[in-house]
TrEMBL record:
It comes from [Actinomadura] parvosata subsp. kistnae. PROSITE patterns: GNAT. It holds the Pfam family Acetyltransf_10. One of its GO terms (molecular function) is acyltransferase activity, transferring groups other than amino-acyl groups. Keywords: Acyltransferase, Transferase. It comes from the Bacteria. InterPro entries: Acyl_CoA_acyltransferase, Bact_Acetyltransf, GNAT_dom. This is N-acetyltransferase domain-containing protein. Residues 1-133 form the N-acetyltransferase domain.
Length: 134
């Protein structure tokens, strides 16, 4: 878990994900309802993480800045999608332009939007886009 938290800290510094650093990052990485998680590891360093909750929501996907552009996120998504024959869902903040492009490039379909209970960088309730896997 310490290596995952260290990787998450690098992502938060680079991208502000999560928007608000959690009081307990280990608990944030293992949310209630989580059933499975995958890590991308190289030379004992965590490069990325993704989890699925019992309601088939993909959550906590991140790749460290140093590991980007190497297909790590796509491989994590492939592992998660291979774990169930059912479609997965996810939410992404409208501020996550690179994430939105990534999901849409892989065929994820936006099915709606809503306001979050947490605040975005502008101090307003974040706009969340809801996606379903191909």
């Amino acid at each position: 878990m310490p290596a995952c938290v260290e990787a998450l800290a690098a992502v938060q510094t680079a991208d502000r994900y999560p928007v608000n650093w959690p009081d307990d990052p280990g608990a944030w990485l293992t949310p209630d309802g989580m059933t499975t998680a995958w890590l991308a590891i190289e030379a004992d360093a965590v490069l990325g993480h993704v989890a699925i909750t019992r309601d088939l929501e993909l959550t906590r996907l991140f790749v460290t800045p140093a590991a980007r552009g190497r297909g790590v996120a796509a491989r994590l998504l492939d592992a998660a999608r291979a774990s169930t024959p059912l479609p997965l869902k996810l939410e992404v903040s409208s501020e996550g332009h690179a994430a939105i492009r990534f999901y849409e490039r892989l065929g994820w379909r936006r099915v709606g939007s809503s306001r979050a209970t947490w605040l975005n960088a502008a101090g307003e309730p974040a706009l969340l886009h809801h996606y379903v896997s191909p």
